[in-house]
């Protein structure tokens, strides 16, 4: 699932520790198991790029605080539920889901 979350507060989108914490909580809510993580904050007023490597695949985020956007990619298999992770992040970030795309793989 690819999702664009808009109208997120810029200070949240610049905080890699908070973003990582929320992503980990979203993974747990989606019944996924985190095996590794890497988050990077771009300097100044820049955003965050981060990824959780999951036993079920991955959950990633790219943020643009200057426009209030968080782009989330949730790729999961097995019992994990990508739509749960995206909805959890939308609620936690206080954003508005304006678009999402579900891509079926391996059919």
CATH fold-level assignment: S-adenosylmethionine decarboxylase
Number of strand segments: 6
**Which structural class best describes the helix and strand composition?**
alpha+beta
Helix content: 25-40%
Commentary on this structure:
With 107 residues, the chain is of the alpha+beta class. It has a single domain (2-99), classed as S-adenosylmethionine decarboxylase (4-Layer Sandwich), CATH 3.60.90. Helix content is 28%, strand content 39%. It has a 6-stranded antiparallel sheet with strand order 2-3-4-5-1-6, with helices on one face. The longest helix is centred in the first third of the chain and has 14 residues, at 16-29. The protein is globular. The model has no long low-confidence stretch (mean pLDDT 92).
Keywords for this structure?
S-adenosylmethionine decarboxylase; 107 residues; 3 helices; 6 strands; globular; 39% strand; alpha+beta; six-stranded antiparallel β-sheet
Give a summary of the structure in a few sentences:
By secondary structure, the protein is an alpha+beta fold. Helix content is 28%, strand content 39%.
Draw up the topology in text.
Elements: E1 2-6, H1 10-13, H2 16-29, E2 34-41, E3 48-54, E4 57-64, E5 69-76, H3 82-93, E6 96-101
Antiparallel strand pairs: 1-5, 1-6, 2-3, 3-4, 4-5
């Amino acid at each position: 699932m690819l999702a664009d979350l808009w109208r997120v507060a810029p200070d949240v989108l610049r905080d890699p520790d908070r973003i990582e914490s929320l992503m980990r909580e979203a993974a747990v809510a989606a019944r996924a198991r985190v095996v590794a993580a890497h988050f990077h904050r771009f300097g100044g007023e820049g955003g965050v790029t981060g990824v959780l490597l999951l036993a079920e695949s991955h959950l990633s985020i790219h943020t643009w605080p200057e426009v209030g956007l968080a782009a989330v990619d949730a790729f999961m298999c097995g019992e994990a539920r990508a739509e749960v992770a995206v909805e959890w992040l939308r609620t936690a970030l206080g954003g508005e889901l304006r678009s999402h795309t579900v891509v079926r793989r391996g059919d």
